[in-house]
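Quick entry, no commentary yet.
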Amino acid sequence: MFDKIVIIIYFALMLGAGYVGSRRNRNSDDFTVAGRRLGPFMYTSAMSTVVLGGAATVGGVSLGYQHGISGMALVLMLSLGIAMIGVLFAGTVHRNGVRTVPEALERTFGRTSGLLGSVIVIFYTLFVGVAQIIAIGTVLTVVFDMPRALAAAVGWAVITLYSVAGGMWSITMTDVIQFLIKTVGIFALLLPMAIAEADGLGSLQEKLPATYFDPVGIGVSTIAAYFLLFFFGFLIDQGNWQRLATARSERVARWGALVSGVYCALYGLAGALIGTAAKALLPTLSTADDAYASVASLVLPAGVFGVVIAAALAASMSTASGLLIGSSTVLTGDVLRPKYGERMNSLRANRIALLAVCVAALAIALAMDSVVGAVTVATDLLAAGLFIPITFGLLWRRSTAFAAVASIVAGSVVCIVFMILDGLYANEPVMFGMLASLVAFAVASLVRRKEHSAPERTLKDVPAVPS
């Protein structure tokens, strides 16, 4: 009972932080990018929490349960991606006042590429947000012994209330709380206590197969697939780009991303070790996604267990809220605003769009049951369709509008075809999708550059526009 009270208090804290954040909203810039005023601690905390969601926490422990320490590969690729954003894109994106990935495409290549990018980004942010809602349901089911659909709906309701009320200010304030809870819950409580319950690392090595302690035990091909999916995908992740825009300076944007990458890598290692200990303690779990909550229930006393479960909820809720507001920002700013004008830039329009996106996310979540599966589908399409045109648009002056459209279409179509042929979890969709995107971009740029491009430029040459 005490653990349930802790979770309820946590939800109340989130709603309270959402209310406080809502009082800071005066315009669309406040709602979507927190007024571009975040300092180092708030920015780094928020950047970390948007990365470390249900796939990194519940999913990371699940992979550790199945594969051992190499299960950290997924989170490691996320951490490398977020760090590289600081190196490659933070300066250009922050200086140009860009809020969304499709905005960068449209300002570099024109309206058609921006619209195509918007479709992919909305799909991506929705499905990764869906993965977080699924993860919330998985965790709450263990604590409250309720149907998974109802559990997911409860977590979704809390996210929707504080996000719609205060936008990015509320999300950032809840992120800071969630960052602290995750840090304490994972590093100070669950990791040491799970390993101690399993009689230490030495005992784990005796009880489990050697592959559990092989850094590439999950498989080189799987690690390569995670690299293609999550490293490249996170470089152009809408949630991350929108977070770049919240920093108060280019320096904060760059160094905060690098620090966040280091933190996330350590978090991934901790999750894999927790999953490894769970395998030794609970070897016959029917569902690997239950490993996080199940091992926490086994090794932690009342009250402490509630804090650790709150850490899992914090991970999923922070990522979900960041991605869902990313989806609604693309919807209002890149899809509706060019057609309906500045009324789409109002607080009211932003709130309505975010509410609509949240409702769609819940409906999709109730129809799916795999955390990693939802993320994989979304990230496949994002990396295959947008990585090449975004990167070349930022860096290569011979890029053309025609090439961007050809690249997006070719990469997306090939990715979808290979998903159908080889399955959602195969490596081929993203590998061949990115290859097709690259070939289409290069050929179209070189062959039809003079006919279809504006004067040669990259995003660095495009002046910032008012938000």
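second:
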Amino acid sequence: MSDFHQNGIITDFHNLTRRPVDALEAELVQFAHRRPMGLILPSLFSELEGKALSAIVDELTQVPYLSEIVIGLDRADRDQFLFAREFFARLPQHTRILWNDGPRLRALDSELEAQGLGALEAGKGRNVWYCSGYLLASGRSSVVALHDCDIVTYERGMLARLLYPVAHPRFNYSFSKGYYPRIAGGKLNGRVSRLMVTPLLRALKSVFGPLPYLEYLDCFRYPLSGEFAMRSDVLEGIRLPSDWGLEIGVLSELQRHYSHRQICQVDIADAYDHKHQPVSEADPSGGLNRMSLDIAKALYRKLATQGVTFSCEDFRTLKATYYRMALDLIEAYDHDATMNGLSLDRHSEEQAVELFAGNLLEAGNLFLDNPRERPFMPSWNRVQAAIPDLLTRMHDAVEQDNRGDV
């Protein structure tokens, strides 16, 4: 059972009583009259062929308060899109699929590229960005949640707890972030969060001082969780990263635009497991190797916008400071795992730390060598200023695809 401690500048919602999901959903049904709720599901077609997403859809069929579900479908040809329409047809909510590789949305993408407003590389960030645009165009939801499609321990109470703080009519939260323990198969998981982000934030504070941005990020129990909810108007003004820095980028944008009193985190599960990314030591373009590079660059870029200056010497100092702090944390994680009857491979943990330490330096070199890199996709406010009717045409394109005219 989680504790009641409030340990930072953002509000922490705990799971103190294991309140039944039916009770939460009964309240959310009432909240929905004032604040209609939607859900974004960014998905690869390959996830439709696994067990996790089918089980997630089964759970979502029982959710009574959602106004709409928007599914972003990547890496799908025509036949696969048609399969996806059948796959999701059992959902009772108003459900629409964005066929991101279809001719209609590709045409809109080309138009955005011609205006210098393209979504850069394909990936989860791009998928979420397009889903956000459609949701804004539909106007059906004033609160929207997002979670991944590979959660093998999913149950609908996760969604209810995630939405509750933002949907409650008496609360003033614009954004909620989910957290949970990363435990599965008798092992302690969550390597990038445990072994990179936590010690990196502490190392950055040690080298550059306790900046408000770093203190803010360090309040989050799981900053890399892919589960969050927000008011739909948040989607209009924030910029989303196109790379693996999506979760850190979203938190950074929230800190820039909103008071910390409008941001919260919520305990959404006692157990959480999903598809594990390989470390990919030999391939910097994939797995945890690529993820750690993108996260480090996202942090450097944000700090630079707040007046922090970097040099090669700074990055070497940061690497050494991070490495020592990460090794100390491995010992703490090992002892915690032992007390809880969990296993932890200290050798592989230290190998991961060595990889992440090298990537901190590499990310620094990339940051210094390419100061004009444009990692963020434009806000939808900017897109609408440049192409006022684009969201309307996106909505029409998605409706045509989902009616069967493909």
